[in-house]
């Protein structure tokens, strides 16, 4: 490409040649501006996608551990005749809750709240004792957890329904 | 900038003007190539930094849960007079190990391995029974864990040292 241009310069420049170069320069500058914009977008995405990757990794790591916590809570609920051993396990349970909190996972307040299908999974319903309790959470069968602002696991609940007196 | 160029085109083009345009075009193309290279580098970084962010998030989430596992293991080691309750807790412990494995965290094989300061923390030493055992791990006081290829927690160990007979 260089050789013919040098030739034409030697033959004497034409207005066409200048026009061609100007157009090429305009195009090159336009292309550069578009790439610059893509570059800035990519850099912005870098930050937000990293946060999403972090959140997802936490979610995947902590999800199965909630089942372990459930199992520990079921064992504790059954009670024991061995007080010392029971106390040791109960202390472990408190450590567990704290470790989850440290990792960003927190149990959700649920009982008495209005039923919300975004964070509650209705297992069954029970008659409400008053109209005010209608569509509120009566009992939690499995605790729900959130991870920062997002849902880690919905709470499995019994929903109250008011059917009049 | 456009106005003077139009003027000079109307005045008739010069070899200088063509030279100027060619240099500008060369520069624009060079600038574009450099930005293109930066763009590709950034895109590659995106992938590797996301993986690093994921790994770090897992590490931060799972670290405190290893202490919970230790507490559960200490409780189990003490034993219990309540066989049913003990069995329930032992089952929870197995679930715990599996959940950690699912999250990518695995206990390291340690006993009998040559002492390696990268993954072992020597708490104390004990006399080795034979020269072959010199500088090998004799006992694990706290299990070490790895997360994929990286260290999640070093094993706290007792190192054997051979002092001759």
Characterise the protein shown here.
Two copies of one chain form a homodimer. Chain A is an alpha+beta fold. The first copy, chain A, has three helices and six strands, in the order αααββββββ. Chain A has helices spanning 2-11, 15-78, 83-102; strands at residues 105-107, 120-127, 137-142, 145-147, 150-153, 155-161. In chain A, the strands form two sheets. Chain A has a three-stranded antiparallel sheet. In chain A, a hairpin with a 2-residue loop joins strand 4 and strand 5. The first copy, chain A, is elongated and about 100 Å long. In chain A, 21% of the residues are buried.
Secondary structure blueprint with pairings:
The structure is a homodimer of 165-residue chains.
Chain A: H1 2-11, H2 15-78, H3 83-102, E1 105-107, E2 120-127, E3 137-142, E4 145-147, E5 150-153, E6 155-161
Parallel strand pairs in A: 2-6
Antiparallel strand pairs in A: 1-4, 3-6, 4-5
Helix pairs in contact in A: 2-3
């Amino acid at each position: 490409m260089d050789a013919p241009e040098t030739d034409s310069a030697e033959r004497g420049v034409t207005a066409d040649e200048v026009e061609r170069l100007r157009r090429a320069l305009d195009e090159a500058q336009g292309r550069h501006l578009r790439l610059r914009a893509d570059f800035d977008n990519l850099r912005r995405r870098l930050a937000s996608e990293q946060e999403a990757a972090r959140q997802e990794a936490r979610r995947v790591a902590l999800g199965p551990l909630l089942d372990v916590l459930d199992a520990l809570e079921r064992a504790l609920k059954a009670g024991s005749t061995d007080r010392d051993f029971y106390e040791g396990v109960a202390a472990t349970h408190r450590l567990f809750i704290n470790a989850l909190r440290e990792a960003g996972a927190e149990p959700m307040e649920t009982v008495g709240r209005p039923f919300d299908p975004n964070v509650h999974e209705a297992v069954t319903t029970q008659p409400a004792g008053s109209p005010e309790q209608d569509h509120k959470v009566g009992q939690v069968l499995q605790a729900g957890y959130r991870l920062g602002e997002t849902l880690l696991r919905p709470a499995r609940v019994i929903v109250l329904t008011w059917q009049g007196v």
